[in-house]
Amino acid sequence: MSVQRVFKYVAEARPVFKALNSVFLIYKPAHLRFNRMRDTIIQNLCRDLNDMKTRPPLKYVVIEGQTDINLKVHVRDSFADHPLVVGPRYQPNDFRLAATKNMHEDVSGIIVCGLNKGNRIVHMLKESKCVRFYRVAGLLGQATDNYFHTGKIVEKSKYTHVKRGHIDKICTSMQSSHQRKMFDLCGVDIQSQAAYELALQGPLRPTDRSIPLLYTIKCVDFSPPHFALEIVCTQEYDMYLKTIVHDLGMALRTNATCVQIQCIQDGLFNKKHALLTKHWTLEHIMDNMQMCRAIIDQNPKVLRQENPALVEYDGDTKVRPTIYE
Description:
This protein is an alpha+beta fold. It has helices at 13-18, 34-51, 83-86, 119-128, 164-186, 193-201, 238-251, 282-298; strands at residues 23-28, 59-64, 72-77, 97-99, 107-115, 132-140, 142-144, 153-156, 213-223, 226-234, 256-266, 269-270.
């Protein structure tokens, strides 16, 4: 038996503010700092809430007149609580916003954010160590001091000898070495029976939150000198992904520099669910919170992981990981 949802249209800001207690998904463009992104979202929420009907100023009682005759009692608005005196009703300090990943300004892609009580869900998602899918673009033939195309070029080399098959071979070798590292982090010998039983369960989550782990890396586009990689990993950071591109270039006997890092999926959420910059408004964030809540309700185990292996979730979200293909 399906439960029919009831929608209520409100004009007051107070019930809307109380409903801002969940997670939502946004798409952060490149060259935008995380703190600037956070301030923009909170300022937009304050602006939209203050444009709605807010509570009136508090009242106070005034007794006027002479003491030897009948006194008059008046109830007036308190100027000490007027918005022109104390400022708008909703201010940035009223919001608490957190994210599952503090994304660097060089990285673009989706971010799962939590607002107010939604920070608890963000913390649970962090503890679950969900995998993230990245599309990393590189440039052959040059190296920079910060492993990104915005840095100073320190070396140039030829790349005409590099073929698609060479990149695929190196990617396979890098993936195998990281899979061996996955068993080392579990504290088992790769030649033991325990390692065999763990391998049957599939890829494993790392126990240490400070160590990144790569599950899959493959070349999805090759147009010399440009190429693109699809990387599936967890607990990663921007320099870790840039170093992968640099090490790939060294293994190819040339140089390679990262030119783009884009996060296309974070756990159960992908970029088709994310809000663009023009949609960072109260109305779109409320709709996105409802959609994210429905995805989490269909997959409650994503908040409390009981299996050390990465499992495929059920449901109608159609955003299941593809690391087993």
